[in-house]
Amino acid sequence: MHFANRRNRFQSRRSHAFTLKLRAWLQLFRLPNLLTVPGDALAGAAIVSLFRSEKLPGWTLLALGMISLFLYGMGLVQNDWVDLHEDRFHRPERPLPSKRLSTSNAALAFFICLIAGLLLAYAVAWRVFLHALLLSALIWLYNLYSKKRYYAGSLNMGLCRGVSLLLGASALGWHSAIVPVFIAQTAYIYFVTLFAEGENRRQIPDSKVFLPMLCFLLGWLLNLPLMVYFHSRISLTSWLLAGACMMLALMAAGAAALRVYNRSVRPDEMRGYIGALIRALLPWQAAWLVLHEGAWTVVIMLVLLQMWPLTILLNKEFSQS
Predict the structure, then answer these.
(1) pLDDT single digits (tens) 191-222
(2) Are 42 and 289 in contact (CB under 8 A)?
(3) Percent helix, strand and coil across the chain, each to the nearest 5
(4) Contact between 220 and 38 (Cβ < 8 Å)
(5) What's the pTM?
(6) Fewest CB atoms within 10 Å of the CB: 39, 40, 76, 292?
(7) Number of C-alpha atoms within 13 angstroms, CB side, residue 227?
(8) CATH architecture for segment(s) 35-315
C-alpha cells in the first residue's frame, strides 16, 4: 500500500511536470496565432487552382499547410530567442526568461522547424522551395533587423504573411488573381503590426483602426472582375459560401475596430483588438478557399471557421500579441 501511494505520487508529479512543459511550448509557439497560419498557403493554392483549372492532390495541400506551420514556428522561436534579454525585464513570464524552457531546447526546435519546412517544400516542387527560402529570409530579416523599425518592421511582417499565401499558390504556378489577395493580406498585417507596436500604453485610437477591415474589402472588390469573368468555374453554392465567409471577416474586423475607436483604451483592450484582427484571418482565408468547388474546400472552410471560436478560448491562456 505504501509503495503504491509513492508510485501514484510519482506518476502524478510526472504528469504535472509534463503538463507544465507542454504549456510552455504552446506559449512559445503562441498557439492561437499558429492556428491561423496554414490557411494562408491553402487559400493561395485554392485561388490559383480555381483560375487555372488545375487540381492539387491532397498530400500536396497537407504539405503546404505543414510548410507554413514549420516556418512560422521557426520564426516564433527565433523571435523569443532574439528578445531574451529584453523579455527578462518586460515579459519575464515568457517560457525562455522564466527558464521553463532552456535555450538549447529552443535552438533544437528552431532547427527542426527550419529543416522540416525546407525539406517538405523541396519535396513538393522547386517553386515552393524557392518561396520557402524567401519566406525564411523575410522571417530572419524581421527578427534580426526590421522589428525594431516602426514602418519597415510592419511591412516586413506583412510580407511574411503575404509570401505565405504565395507559397501555396506556387505549387501550381502563377495567376493574376493572386495579386489583389496578396496585396490585401500584406497591407492587413502591416496595419495590425503597426497597431501592435503601441499596445502596451493607454491610447485613444482614431479612424485608422478601420483600415484592416478596408484591406479585406478592397482585396475582395479588386478580385471581383476576375471572379465575374471566370463565373462559369464558380458554382452558386461557392459564391454564397464565399460571400458569407467574407461578410464574417469584415464584421469581425469592423466589430473589433468599433470596440476601441475614439475612446481611451487600456493596454489589455488594445491587445484584445490585435487578437481579434488576427482571428479574422480565418474567415478571410475560408472565403477564398471555398470559391474553389469541392468537398475538401467545404471541409477546410468548416475547420477554419471552427478554429475561430477556438482561438478566442485559447487566447485566454496563450497571448496572441
Answers:
(1) 999 998 877 778 888 899 999 999 999 999 99
(2) yes
(3) 80, 0, 20
(4) no
(5) 0.91
(6) 76
(7) 22
(8) Orthogonal Bundle (1.10)
